[in-house]
Design brief:
Helix content: 55-70%
Structural class: mainly alpha
Strand content: under 5%
Order of helices and strands: HHHH
Amino acid sequence: MSEVINPEVYTVERLLEDREKRVLISEIVLKLASSLGVTVEELLKYLEWKENLERLEKAEKEKAVGGLEVEEPTEDAPEDLSELLIEVKEDVRKWLEIERKLRAMGLEL
């Protein structure tokens, strides 16, 4: 395996220490976001969501999280809660669209 792609040799933290590699990583992220038709911020939020989703799935498998249910707000729920739920659903929709585009490009993050 090439040293360049060996994750044991080049962790993200180690790559970011080198200014030239940091610039290269920034350019790659920018081009990926551009080819997906999203902003870099949206791509980074997607990656954060994906990581959190994987952690949650792992925790559920380990039964560390039990019985968490998210219900639709009732009519007497605070208005802010309804707005927040709508915003979260819209974010998840965007992230799923990014994931669909990545798969269409043959990329699995």
